[in-house]
Amino acid sequence: MGPVIGAGWQKFATFLTHAGRQQPDRRGSFVNMPVERGSTVVFPTVDDMEAQGGHAYEHQLVYGAMGNPVQHRLEQVIAALEGGSHTQVVNSGLAACTVALLAFLKGGDHLLLPDSVYGPTRRFVLGTLARFGVETSFYPPRADEATLRAHLRPNTAVIFAESPGSHTFEVQDIPMIARLAHGAGARVLLDNTWGIGAFQPFTSGVDVSIQALTKYPSGHADVILGSITVQRQEHWQSLRRTAIELGACGAPDDCWLTLRGLKTMAVRLSQQARSAYELALWLKSRPEVAHVRHPALPGCPGHEIWKRDFTDASGLFGVELDAGITQEAMIAMLDGLHLFSIGASWGGYESLVLPTSGGLIRTHKDGLPQGAAFRIQVGLENVADLKADLTRGLDGLKR
């Protein structure tokens, strides 16, 4: 019997429904807080302005580029959801990765990055960080302790993790990585976007948890936003200082839309996780499919770690086709789907597909698809309709 999928999200339903709402007063008030847009913050006296400037690390209003009231409210909700003490909201998921790396690395440091990492993060470390003297090397995402230890250097300052990888879905042993990193004096940064709510980073030893709020929290394919959450005060000081120096913040309207999206995230993810798991099981039975990369599927590499560390799944997984099916045939199939749009994002209400074979960059070849492969983001459509759409596509494949 397989795992129960979708039920784990329900523990957040009450919290998310009530978090970030306006508190009613005797005159009455709207349920949702208002959007306050602004850049300049004015004060009655110079002394008042200078005193407020001392609260820049406390989610208080100082200047528009240091945050706004709705951003601060969103930061409180994300920090609670992730199990941390403080969150910094920034303008994109990629910015969350880059600001976090800049906060905890300096010239001469060594960074360890999983080979399955989000492509733009890889591009940033090999470009910008390299220009500033940070060395980066890549480790196999499913490395055991001995293999990962062999990649450590005396100047390793950060081990970055992404679990599961968003294209090839390797589940990483985060408690082991944290134990090894902390023993070597390094910090662990985790891109936890797939596992928001389903994986509690700080109980597993993570120092910094990164989210692309663009995905499930906003949930409607109309926001670009990211967050970085920490638990320890010294980490917050480094993170907040870097965010202020970089001018990293979230636009009020995007923060408000994300707060609104969070109200329904539990019910959306519950539905999407169940539909994705049902679709993954069905695809596994199709003769055209060689492998389904879904961490919650028994027998999938990394499933035992997922079962130990996660309380649920998301709606994103991978499919590798039979060796006899060409890349060209797969692309023709994807082009012909009716309900699945072709797009690089995920986490919204709409179902998407994206080819994942032929374009992935790896240092270590282990884990790459051997045949034509694609990624599925399952939205809120009826799962029977999604199966029917994929059935038409798979039946029409030219081998």
From TrEMBL:
It catalyses: L,L-cystathionine + H2O = L-homocysteine + pyruvate + NH4(+). The modification N6-(pyridoxal phosphate)lysine is found at residue 215. GO terms for molecular function: cysteine-S-conjugate beta-lyase activity; pyridoxal phosphate binding. Pfam families: Cys_Met_Meta_PP. Gene3D superfamilies: Aspartate Aminotransferase, domain 1 (3.90.1150.10), Type I PLP-dependent aspartate aminotransferase-like (Major domain) (3.40.640.10). Keywords: Lyase, Pyridoxal phosphate. GO terms for biological process: L-cysteine catabolic process to pyruvate; transsulfuration. Its cofactor is pyridoxal 5'-phosphate. InterPro entries: Cys/Met-Metab_PyrdxlP-dep_enz (IPR000277), Cys_b_lyase_bac (IPR006233), PyrdxlP-dep_Trfase (IPR015424), PyrdxlP-dep_Trfase_major (IPR015421), PyrdxlP-dep_Trfase_small (IPR015422). NCBIfam families: cysta_beta_ly_B. Belongs to the trans-sulfuration enzymes family. This is Cystathionine beta-lyase.
